[in-house]
Design goal:
Elements lengths: L2 H10 L5 E3 L12 H6 L5 E5 L5 H9 L4 E6 L2 H13 L5 E5 L5 H4 L5 E7 L17 H10 E11 L2 H14 L4 E4 L17 H8 L5 E6 L1
């Protein structure tokens, strides 16, 4: 591991806007994220697989009356997102470094108001279906931690993941489901608030349509 990465890992270990394994609060915040981390009772929104936290940061700037948590396992990505949040003095942002499979240990039942899944690894191989972040396995976790009626959003460039997710959802017959295979040529783009990730801009420059789904689990 490079010295640069080690330095970044050491830095995030000292940050109050980062929670990770080894911290006193890790696995002790379930049910009290609002009160303990944010010291308010505002809605709680998660970005799953947040990468550099571009959506987390973007939403936090637009909605100062909501709390946002970017979740990823990659420490260097968490460092980038948490650095930007500190630079922009965003007190309604935190980052949780953990595996997505452990979300039901990190949040209490019904604690979360909304979830965003932004450009996840599509896991194209059949043997990796269970690892797709919109597989029934993960949808069950989202359903557990979301309040009744809480929304989930998916943005992806990958047509196969979009198609797979749509099929899974239609089998579940959700009460609410909006979708498009070309977000920026649809009337659904207002739901994504004009926030673009670095990868998203790259895909659009290459002429790849962005797919979007909004649903309740």
């Amino acid at each position: 591991m490079s010295r640069s990465k080690l330095a970044k890992f050491a830095t995030i270990a000292t940050r109050e806007n980062v929670i990770q394994d080894g911290d006193e609060l890790y696995k002790n915040l379930a049910g009290s994220w609002r009160q303990t981390q944010f010291e308010n009772n505002n809605p709680l929104v998660l970005e799953i697989g947040c990468g550099r936290g571009e959506y987390t940061i973007g939403m936090a700037k637009l909605f100062p009356d909501k709390n946002f948590i970017g979740i990823d396992i990659k420490g260097e990505r968490i460092w980038k997102g948490s650095t930007r949040a500190l630079e922009e003095e965003l007190t309604n942002v935190a980052f949780l470094r953990t595996f997505i499979e452990q979300l039901d240990e990190q949040f209490a039942e019904g604690e979360v108001d909304e979830i965003w899944v932004t450009f996840p690894d599509p896991r194209p191989r059949d043997r990796d279906i269970k690892r797709r972040l919109t597989s029934p396995r993960f949808l069950a976790i989202y359903q557990q931690i979301l309040k009744p009626g809480g929304l989930v959003h998916l943005k992806t460039d990958n047509l196969d993941l979009y198609t797979y997710t749509l099929e899974v959802l239609q089998e579940r017959k959700p009460k609410h489901l909006l979708y498009t295979d070309d977000l920026y040529h649809s009337d659904l783009q207002e739901h994504t608030m004009g926030i673009y990730t670095t990868y998203e801009r790259r895909y659009l420059a290459e002429g790849i349509p962005i797919k979007y789904l909004q649903f309740k689990v």
